[in-house]
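note to self: dont lose this again. the chain is below, predicted strucutre after it. 116 aa total, dont forget to put it in the shared folder this time
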Amino acid sequence: MKWLFLLLALLPATAMAQSVTPNFTTGTVNSTTTSTQTVAETIAIKTYGGTQFSVTGSNVTPAANLAATTTYTVTDATKDFSYSAVTLAAGIIGTQDITRTITTTSTTQSLSVFSQ
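---
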């Protein structure tokens, strides 16, 4: 009898499967996705220039060819005179910073329809 019990224990068991029936026949899924992106940026603008020299005036006479070291004398001392000399070295002559923020929002809507 022990041998019979041992023999029965070694025999494979039969598996029983049940069928699965869904609880639905049709359906839909609505989905909405919204995303927002924000970009903050700064634009730095630098303007470069070369060496500049300019002279303006009235009732003055240069002593030699025009240059940064030229001397000027008043032409008629009985009249008014004006004299202006401007020298700009090479390099940055202007800067400008522009700061801006760009925000973008996008929305995606989807609809899925399914049936059995």
